[in-house]
Amino acid sequence: MKFSVMVNEGPYTHQAADTAYHFIDAALRAGHEVFRVFFYHDGVNNGTRMTTPPQDDRNIVNRWSALAVEYDLDLVLCVAAAQRRGILDADEAKRNGKDGDNIAPGFRISGLGQLIEAGIQSDRVVVFGG
Amino acid sequence: MLHTVNKSPHDSSSLRTCLSLAKPGSDLLLIEDGVYGALSGSIHSDTIAERLNSVTIYALGPDLKARGISEDRLISGIKVTGYDGFVELASGNDKVQSWL
Predict the structure, then answer these.
(1) Domain ranges for chain B
(2) CA dist., res. A55 & res. A114, Å (int)
(3) Under 8 Å between Cβ of B100 and A42
(4) How high is the ipTM of this complex?
(5) Nearest chain B Cα distance for residue A1, angstroms
(6) Which residues of B touch A128 (CB under 8 A)?
(7) Beta strand residue intervals within B1-100, DSSP E
(8) Rounded to two decimals, what is the model's pTM?
(9) Domain B2-99, CATH homologous superfamily name and number
(10) Which of B2, B7, B51, B69 is deepest in the core (most CB within 10 A)?
(11) pLDDT tens-digit readout, A41-85
């Protein structure tokens, strides 16, 4: 079965980033496909590589990046939500005249159309956070 | 349809609203602080227990454990499942509605 997941809450906020991760991990281990993970609202904060949690805590951002490599996941940050919160890739940094970018490996920035397409292409969309 | 509720019934009306609208035969999974809704002996327990004859209610085991809630404190008839069970519920139902 093809799943897509929407994450609306930042890491270390409450629990949605963890629940979404464990759901996706369980789905992939069960042999399901995850078509896309779309990060919206404060969820885009899951995609900054500048996150530096204490060493004895889980690193939520690195955990997403590792999962993306292992399963070739498509992790998409909403561009408007990302710009408001200072999450930039190299292109967005250049376009907005910023002095650096901070997107984490495995993530990309795109628009809401990616969420709509995920809804069309997937059997189920599961929403976390809010 | 699978409904998920992630808020405690003491914080939010989402569990109550979900239960009032869920059709017979639906599944409901309590996750995150939503697992507090599975506790017996609260002011919400009777409302929840009343729907158990038409809605199958589950609580996410790891979230119960994280809150120190043992299974013997749950409303009788509520089932406990894990993330694998969550995935099975999401694939086994035709839609997933997250009550946030």
Answers:
(1) 2-99
(2) 34
(3) no
(4) 0.97
(5) 7
(6) 6, 98
(7) 2-5, 27-30, 56-60, 79-81, 96-99
(8) 0.97
(9) DsrEFH-like (3.40.1260.10)
(10) B2
(11) 999 999 999 999 999 999 999 999 999 999 999 999 999 999 999
